[in-house]
């Protein structure tokens, strides 16, 4: 039963970011489209389908602008205090927040593309991203954490490797991620 619960939670973590985002966009679209449709029919006597989508786009841009400014700091602190009081909600929220912030925002984790020598005998190398350079908490001062995304999948593996087997490469991180996830089909 414990293993099934573990698989359930893993599946939820894989699906949740996409499902939650899709659901929120759907609800916002339906809500705004209905309101705008009613207002347009009342005042203009016509209907413009899809106006809710345009409204949502500009609304999300506005939220992004406000969220990145100092105005949002008190709301973030208040929200984080509320989340701290609900353990299950805190677990889900922090996992989603960490996942999203790894790809976008100021604290992106996939911005240091590297090539790692995995097997010195066959000179086998893997492409990945350094996600943490300071592993002193793990008592590993001469190692770094490197994330290796899987091809044709939205998963990957985290390896702790010696620093001397890692070399930085000068490529766009987003292009490298597409290259890896596509199995090398997109080119760099």
Count the beta strands: 5
Strand content: 15-25%
Summarize the amount of helix as a percent range: 40-55%
Contiguous low-pLDDT stretches (5 residues minimum) are: none
- Tally of contiguous helical segments: 5
Distance between the termini: 44 Å
Chain-averaged pLDDT: 75
Topology pattern, helix = H, strand = E? HHHHEEEEEH
How would a crystallographer describe the biggest sheet?
5 strands, antiparallel
**Chain oligomer state:** single chain
Q: How is the largest sheet built, in terms of strand order?
A: 4-3-2-1-5
- What is the structural class? alpha+beta
Overall radius of gyration: 22 Å
Shape: elongated
Characterise the protein shown here.
- The chain is an alpha+beta fold and 188 residues long.
- It contains five helices and five strands; from the N terminus they run ααααβββββα.
- The chain has a five-stranded antiparallel beta sheet.
- Helix 1 (2-43) crosses helix 2 (51-67).
Describe this structure in a few short sentences.
With 188 residues, this protein is of the alpha+beta class.
Secondary-structure map:
Blueprint: H1 2-43, H2 51-67, H3 73-84, H4 87-103, E1 113-119, E2 124-132, E3 143-149, E4 156-162, E5 166-168, H5 173-181
Antiparallel strand pairs: 1-2, 1-5, 2-3, 3-4
List keywords for this structure.
188 residues, alpha+beta, five-stranded antiparallel sheet, 5 helices, elongated
